[in-house]
Amino acid sequence: MKVIWKKISVLFGLMIGFFFFSILSRAEEPLIIVIDPGHGGENLGAEYENYTEKEMTMTVAQAMKEELEKYDQVLVYLTHDMDMNMSLEQRALFAKEKNADFLFCLHFNMSVNHDLFGAEVWVPAGGEFYSKGYSFAQIEMSELTSIGLYSRGIKTKLNDKGDNYYGILRYCSEQQIPSVLIEHCHLDHVKDQDFYQQGEEQLKEFGRLDATAVAKYFRLCSTTLGVDYSDYPVEETYVPEGMVKPDKTEPELCQIEVTDINKETGEVTVSMEAEDSDSYILYYHYSLDGGTVYSMPEAWPRAKAWDQSDKEHSFIICVPFDQPIALRCGASNGFDVWAESNEIILDPIEDPERLKEEKAREEQERLEAAEKLLEDTAPVENTASQKEEVDLVMVEVGQESITSSTEILIIMALIIVILICIIFVSFFMAKMIHLLIRGNRKQ
Ligand SMILES: [Zn+2]
Questions:
Q1: If you measure from the C-alpha of residue 331 to the centroid of ligand 1, how many angstroms do you get, rounded to a whole number?
Q2: Ligand 1: distance of its center to the CA of 215 in Å?
Q3: Dist. CA 65–CA 182, nearest whole Å
């Protein structure tokens, strides 16, 4: 019995010794990082204005390597540092040959309709590669959003066979190398252009951010930089059983109501509700013609966390005057699957400027009609001075009869004539009476 216990304790001691030895020997091994500048050679990648993706990713990769080499115990390789053709499989094999601990594939994005914006990180869909990729991507995303980029999220994408859609992630997983694909921003969207169009230094800054994320994930220290990330809180990610599938279903909730209409400015306040239980709401947009033409997507608020979207969002849109509006909105989830809202018909909002002009024109027409009426009543006497008088009189619009000074003169003359006639008749009557009385006396 004693002999057995002795053997067990020796074995136990050996195991502990081996455990510490392996830790110590591991601690001395440098971390091996492979950086893959996306595209190269004939494969230019995205092209926008004067920017070519393969050149941009090379600048970022070199800056990332330079920064990462400032950390202790790290070996950094680029899959290629010349402008050359290199297949995705060759890149993964290169990482395997170097015995890489992780491969970081760098890219810039563009969308088919030039309407998407923001940064995203694609991770392998299966097992520990998902877990490691996702944990790293969370740190990478917080670095990218810290400079103001919009987070499109951390995602998986599968091909028809249910394997990783992105070749570099597929080949790296086959070679048992953890990997991620970083899409830094969209070249073709105005919201992202400020992040890369201010000169080469901005691209280098991307490289430094990427390197910092790597340093934090691997809890590196740098005597050169004087930083110590050995206690950095890396969030653990569960190891999935199968492949983590992307969300293919549209948001379940997408509903709008109009809460206010400003008839002076044409501003319509819309209160929108959107929800997707599988992922989160990423963008919203609106249509004024019932869904035929939509506005450019806008950022949907995610106040709590990048993957927890708010349920409600209120925003103001400006609608054109004098047109019936069929308002409809759309909400997309993190995987760019859109849902359409209910439709709200708005009566045309009358253009206040047009209404003002019309009122002024009506006043003018009424004035002109009144003037014309006066001209018809007294055509001869209508001299220039009288016209001024008329204008003054015309201020009271709607006055039906107009008395002129000539009319008064005519009436006064008539009265005088009538009075003279009465006097003559009176004299004549008095004379006749007198003659009659005298004739009676003579008889
Ligand atoms: Zn690319």
A1: 26
A2: 24
A3: 15
What percent of the chain lies above the pLDDT cut of 90? Answer: 76
Q: What distance in angstroms lies between residue 443's CA and the mean position of ligand 1's atoms? A: 147
- For 131-162, write each residue's pLDDT tens digit: 999 999 999 999 999 999 999 999 999 999 99
Alpha carbon of 307 to ligand 1 centroid (Å): 24
Q: How far is the CA of 428 from the centre of ligand 1 (A)?
A: 125
The per-residue pLDDT for 399 is 47
**Which single residue is written with the structure tokens 């490289």?**
207
Ligand 1 centroid from CA 181, angstroms? 9
CB-count burial class (<10 Å; 0-12, 13-18, 19+) for 315:
middle
Interval between CA 54 and ligand 1 midpoint (Å): 8
d(CA 6, CA 3): 5
Structural domain includes residue 399: yes
Residues 273, 401, single domain; the answer is no
Question: pTM here?
Answer: 0.77
Residues 223 and 340 in one domain: no
- Does residue 2 lie in a domain region? no
Is 67 in the same domain as 160? yes
Using the mean position of ligand 1's atoms as its centre, give its distance from the Cα of residue 121 in Å.
Answer: 12
pLDDT in tens, 238-262: 999 999 999 999 999 999 999 999 9
